[in-house]
Amino acid sequence: MAMQLKIPPASEPVTLTEVKDYLRILDANDDALLTGVITAVRQAAEEFTRRAFVTQTWTAWFDRAELWEKSVGDWTFPAPGRETFSEKRVLEIPRPPLQSINLINTYDTANSATLFPASDYRTEGASAPGRLVLNENVHWPANLRETQAVEAECVLGYGAASSVPQSIKQALLIWVKLLVANKSRLYEEENARGLVELNTDFIPPVVENLLRSYQMKNL
């Protein structure tokens, strides 16, 4: 499957004001720099955890083969060549939390899109990853094209910035601080010695420790 960002988050989990308060910065000289770093660490943290933080909209694309799963016709007497495929009725949506699914389109072999009725499926956002589940007696169309056969527009994230877990916010604040640690004038009252060295890893250990419990496995 493939995931494509459609509508990015309208705000960051931590604001410029929060970052400047955390770093004890009073002037606006580095506002542009800090704004860019905030976005960069949020994107990196989302990639590391494979989650969405603030509300954002993604398109999930499923190939035809991903709508089927391998099964065995007779589990009592398994034998070579008896493998069959059954319809996959539960599809996992990466980058939890899953808030909702706006729409689902299916594409036939003529590349024509058809809106899949919202009454034919349900969304399970409590699980991580979230799930798209077909209702009873509902089936995927038979004449789907081979690639990008199903398009699901999904709303992901914890909600507003205020709903993002505090440990994630703290991780972002620390990461921003470490990335600008070499600008020593930001630490006139603090010994910044050693902060720069923490950036030798892709993710500083203290940040990774805060984010690890939220990390999802690859789908």
Question: Which terms summarize this structure?
Answer:
26% strand; 4 helices; 2 domains; 219 residues; 22% helix; alpha+beta; three-stranded antiparallel sheet; five-stranded antiparallel sheet
3D structure, described in words:
- With 219 residues, the chain is α+β, with helices and mostly antiparallel strands.
- It is 22% helix and 26% strand.
- The strands form three sheets. Strands 1-2-10-6-7 form a five-stranded antiparallel sheet, with no helix packed on it.
Quick synopsis:
This protein is 22% helix and 26% strand.
Number of domains: 2
Rg, alpha carbons: 22 Å
Strand order of the largest sheet: 1-2-10-6-7
CA distance, first residue to last residue:
9 Å
The gross shape turns out to be elongated
Separate helix tally: 4
Helix content: 10-25%
**DSSP strand count:** 10
Quickly give the structural class. Answer: alpha+beta
Largest sheet: 5 strands, antiparallel
- SS strand fraction: 25-35%
Summarize the topology.
Elements: E1 2-7, H1 16-23, H2 31-49, E2 56-62, E3 68-72, E4 83-87, E5 90-93, E6 98-107, E7 113-115, E8 121-124, E9 130-134, E10 150-156, H3 166-179, H4 205-211
Antiparallel strand pairs: 1-2, 2-10, 3-4, 5-9, 6-7, 6-10, 8-9
Helix pairs in contact: 2-3, 3-4
